[in-house]
Write a structure and sequence with these properties.
heterodimer, A: 250 residues, alpha+beta, five-stranded mixed β-sheet, 7 strands, 37% helix, B: 626 residues, alpha/beta, five-stranded parallel β-sheet, four-stranded mixed β-sheet
């Protein structure tokens, strides 16, 4: 069942690099990450790759396989023909550190800019009561394993470095939506979604949803409803009036 | 003098899984300047792999539950070898720790009246595990990660700097702890990205580095689980206990070969899944040991009724503690009643409607579909035992998590004692929270006690640590670390695995000493920037040390108990229950195993058990005089 697979892997660092060709054993049932590990163990001991669980749960081994953003641990080798060249490159949206490892610190900065869950002031620990149906919306978004493939694929930042400053990306817009839909979160999220996280940049092409290994419907269930909430609020005359009346000089 | 970046902290937490993050939150909330050092990216720790849930006697699903019942279950699960004070604190404090997570933003599955839902699990009398589908560990890690961020946001408001009091050093590995006399003075490590060295000056270090599974071939553990904290603690003069007890989770994937060992959650059984051999027989009924006979069903009918009516029926034997189920599966396969790929069948497809399965077990459904082409809603899974958890770890004071080395604390899987000879499913996540918090508190109190008299770094130790770390680059033409690692894993799997024999363990110790000399001569290619070969070479030293502890202690313990099964000593022996095996390094750096007496259980805790049950575990002298 085993055969010699043809691999083309990007090798290099922040200074530059190139695709290198390898022939490496592939066995039944293996995934791309297995083959990368075999390369490390037999031919290229210093090939840099990030991985942890090898079970699709930690979201570390993100890369682009034949140009598609994917988790290497969940990409089965039997999805390729035996004579097909499998090309593995680092995520394009983030700066390369070495080989398949990129600098994903952008995501951690953006995470820090989303104000945390604000607990309700009148409830003590143990007193929280929520219905399953109400928590399910946010729970879907909390399935996110932070592989950052959605960030990688999103065209707003993929080839537009200049947008990174003002756009948090699907992952963190979804985080804003998650908090906004949390039944007990006491903070106001909608203004910030538009003004600080760049929700308006998203033109719902659904690329993020397509690459999500957790099959979260990022666009349909997080981004679009969030856009609707923002719009309702912005153009709702009652909300508008309420804002005018309540506003006090700081 | 070695050139490196230096940082000064009150508390340094090594490890960013559940225990490390909870410890860091506590230290920071106690006003201590705290660093979190993690081997991987922030939020990727092995805790994400926990599936089933977090055990806490909240009594939401069954109001009969309370800390005493949880305590009893934990002691039974560990075959009474547990540190009873840890088991007591754990059972008492777990509910508060879970409720606290909700104030950080966690969203657990709910009961119909809106409280946190709780599910059944092996060895737990009542439904007790707070959960989110089968991805509870992810929820826990994300919640704690987001709490860290929220503390950083508070610091930003106050100081303009997110990292003023709490900073995460991601992809940074500690290779040595430093001391001033007897006391901890700091930690030395390297950045994965650049390979450059980094020094933390800190009077208190909390180890939260997890387990040792990567020393075994078939394991559910990720690459980080190389026993770093265990080995760091030993090199710093601390002691390890219970290292002979390794938990083989009964249900890991067995096919395809490349995913062998990946975990199949116990929730499959908790939610109704059954184990069958190749003859289609539910074999677990044959494997109920005497100590548990009173609590487990004798017929399939009774077992099936239990899911609906747990008050009037006994639980199915599929929900025995993990050590029992793993041994049973091992025996079935050995007797020739295994599946084509050498496991047994785990079937939930005939037990629950398809949509219920995908709702309750979404990541299992996904995992089997994607990795094995198996649809678990339509066909059974093939499963077999996989190395999952080490019960052994740093010997700590239960209340403060302090080791015998002043300034060195340990929490979570790297700490020993809490789970005795076998951990119950769901008790790991609660352990992380309860003792993570206590370690953070213990460290903060210790720092307060020091006042201005902080231990100093000895520069000669820094130079020595740097030299050790670079040693693998010095030799040319030596062996590749990947080869040695594979052989180490194979040896531990074959010779110190689920069933152990004296001659095999002696053979293992012989091989380990060969590995020691081979490791001294291995070669690493390339340079220091993000070089996995180098990282593995450094981790191998730790894996070797913990393997020596496991094999050494296993050879010495002449009985079978929990995660330690001796072919040549099949029974449990009450005399051995009173003994802990303690591992320490001698002056030459050789692992030394010695016996230590257990502290007898406090009277009021003994009284929580029926005399008849105690008789199964304790010697006559230990029994209460009533």
């Amino acid at each position: 069942m085993s055969y010699k697979g043809k691999f083309r892997v990007w090798r290099g660092d922040s200074e530059g690099g190139e695709l290198k060709d390898y022939e490496v054993e592939v066995n039944e049932g293996e995934v791309v990450l297995d083959v990368i590990h075999r390369l490390q163990a037999t031919q290229t001991p210093d090939m840099a790759v990030r991985w942890n669980c090898k079970a699709g749960k930690c979201g570390s081994c993100s890369a682009e396989i034949n140009g598609m953003p994917k988790l290497m641990c969940m990409c089965r080798m039997n999805t390729f023909a035996e004579d097909e060249v499998v090309t593995v490159t680092p995520m394009r949206t983030f700066p390369v550190i070495r080989d398949l490892v990129t600098d994903v610190s952008f995501n951690y900065q953006k995470a820090r800019e989303v104000p945390a869950f604000k607990p309700p002031a009148d409830l003590k620990p143990g007193e929280y009561r929520m219905q399953q149906v109400d928590v399910e919306r946010s729970q879907e978004f909390r399935k996110c394993i932070e592989c950052f493939l959605c960030q990688d694929t999103c065209h707003v930042i993929r080839d537009h470095e200049e947008n990174k400053e003002s756009f948090s990306g699907p992952r963190f817009l979804m985080r804003v939506a998650e908090l906004d839909m949390h039944p007990l979160d006491a903070a106001d999220r909608q203004h910030a979604a538009q003004e600080q996280h760049g929700l308006g940049f998203c033109n719902i092409t659904k690329c993020c949803t397509e690459v999500c290994p957790e099959h979260i419907k990022i666009t349909d269930n997080a981004l679009i409803p969030m856009k609707e909430r923002v719009v309702d609020r912005k153009y709702d005359p009652i909300v508008w009036l309420g804002n005018k009346i309540r506003r006090r000089p700081a | 003098m070695t050139e490196l970046e230096r940082h000064s902290y009150d508390v340094v937490v090594i490890g960013a899984g559940g225990a490390g993050l909870r410890a860091a939150i506590e230290a920071r909330e106690q006003g201590k300047k705290t660093a979190i050092i993690c081997k991987s990216l922030f939020g990727k720790a092995h805790t994400v792999m926990a599936e089933g849930g977090c055990a806490a006697a909240m009594g939401n699903a069954n109001s009969n539950d309370n800390w005493q019942v949880h305590y009893r279950d934990t002691m039974r699960g560990g075959k009474f070898l547990n540190n009873w004070r840890m088991a007591e604190l754990h059972a008492q404090e777990a509910p508060d720790r879970v409720w606290e997570l909700e104030t950080y933003g966690a969203l657990f599955d709910r009961t119909p009246d809106g409280r946190i839902s709780q599910r059944n699990f092996g060895g737990h009398t009542y439904p007790r595990l707070a959960h989110v589908g089968d991805r509870t560990g992810l929820e826990l890690i994300r919640t704690l990660q987001q709490k860290i961020v929220s503390l950083q946001q508070e610091d930003f408001e106050a100081t303009g700097d997110y990292e003023a009091n709490l900073k995460v050093y991601a992809e940074c590995t500690v290779t040595e702890l430093l001391k001033d006399g007897d006391a901890i003075s700091g930690a030395f490590g390297y950045w994965r990205e650049s390979g450059r060295f980094i020094l933390f000056e800190a009077p208190a270090v909390v180890l939260a580095t997890g387990g040792v599974g990567k020393s075994f071939k078939v394991t559910s553990n990720s690459w980080e689980y190389t026993g770093d904290g265990h080995a760091l603690a030993m090199r710093a003069g601390a002691t390890l206990i219970n290292m002979e007890f390794i938990q083989f989770h009964p249900t890991g994937m067995v096919w395809p070969p490349s995913v062998k060992g990946i975990l199949v959650t116990e929730s499959v059984r908790g939610d109704g899944g059954v184990l069958k051999n190749s003859e289609g027989k539910r074999f677990m009924f044959e494997y109920v040991p005497d100590v548990f006979r009173a609590q487990y069903a004798e017929s399939e009918d009774e077992a099936d009724r239990w899911y609906k009516d747990p008050d009037n029926n006994r639980r199915p034997p599929e929900l025995l503690p993990r050590d029992e189920v793993a041994r049973a599966i091992n025996s079935e396969v050995k007797a020739g009643r295994g599946t084509p790929h050498g496991g047994v069948f785990l079937d939930v497809s005939s037990r629950l409607p398809a949509e219920e399965i995908t709702r309750r077990l979404p990541s299992m459904h996904h995992q089997f579909k994607e990795l094995a082409d198996v649809d678990i809603t339509a066909e059974p899974m093939e499963v077999g035992p996989t190395c999952h958890y080490v019960m052994g770890g740093v010997e700590v004071d239960p209340d403060t998590a302090s080791s015998v080395v002043p300034g060195l604390f340990a929490a979570g899987e790297v700490a020993g004692g809490m789970h005795g000879s076998n951990r119950l499913g769901g008790n790991s996540l609660s352990d992380l929270l309860v003792f993570g918090r206590r370690a953070g508190m213990g460290a903060a109190m210790y720092v307060d006690g020091l006042g201005a008299a902080r231990p100093k770094i000895d520069e000669a130790d820094v130079d020595a640590a740097a030299e050790d770390a670079l040693a693998p680059f010095e030799l040319e033409g030596g062996e590749n670390p990947y080869t040695i690692h594979q052989e180490l894993q194979q040896s531990m799997n074959d010779l110190v695995g689920i069933i152990r024999k004296e001659e095999e363990m002696e053979q293992a110790l012989g091989r380990l000493s060969e590995f020691r000399s081979r490791i001294a001569k291995m070669t690493v290619e390339g340079h220091r920037q993000f070089n996995p070969g180098w990282h593995l070479a450094l981790d191998l030293r730790n894996m070797l040390t913990v393997s020596e502890c496991v094999a050494g202690a296993a050879l010495m313990r002449q009985e079978s108990r929990g995660g330690h099964t001796r072919d040549d000593f099949p029974g449990m022996n009450p005399e051995w229950r009173k003994k802990l095996l303690v591992c320490a390094l001698d002056a030459d750096g050789v692992v030394n195993v010695s016996e230590e007496q257990q502290i007898p259980m406090r009277e009021d805790l003994l009284e929580l058990f029926e005399l008849d049950e105690l008789k199964k575990y304790l010697t006559d002298e230990e029994l209460p005089a009533k």
